[in-house]
What we know:
Layout: H1 2-8, H2 12-19, H3 23-43, E1 48-58, H4 66-77, H5 81-91, H6 95-101, E2 102-106, E3 112-119, H7 122-142, H8 144-147, E4 149-155, H9 168-189, H10 207-216
Antiparallel strand pairs: 1-3, 1-4, 2-3
Amino acid sequence: MTDTFTASRRPAPLARARTLPPWTLIAAGVLAGGLLGGGYGLVTPPTYAATSYVVAVPTAKADPASALGFAQAYGRVANQIAVLGDAQVWAGVPLKTLQSNVQTATSPDAPMVAITATSSRPDVAADMANAVARALTRHAEDTKDDTHVELQQFARATRPASPSSASPGVTGLVGASAGGLLGGLALLVRPRRTAAEPGGPASVPGPAFAADAHGQL
């Protein structure tokens, strides 16, 4: 009798959760995730990326294979203050902006350094990439007599025509996918009906049953 009375006091939200169709949790997750993802894409400003390329060229006194090693070295020092300090003058942005928004990449097969800058403005992204490339080639020129390798501009960064960040539609799809996944996980851990609980809360025993139980005692 105690177990029956406890079942009748089951919280209403939990009881209603057991009666919901299984697909409602997934649908709710997809809808909520899509709205959150699309909203995030709308409120987040677009990001533009521009890339400038410089190539290491050996002088007549250097081994052509040494250019590849120096390209790797120049790629690592491109983000140093000595280089960015000169670049900020030409880019017209603070040093911290260059430090957080400029990245370099090198290739193990070619003596080339790729300098990529990101900004919410496409013209600023191109200016930052070209400024860092210019500063890096200047520093390589100063040490050319010792390294016997110089850096030359291979391709200037141009103003990007479209943002590199995801559009609101893409972020909405990503959010909807994540929401659907969470809804599926919630479906797996959702309380399930048992044989003793066909679909609704159990009722308190009637007077006749109570009387029979009293007579047996």
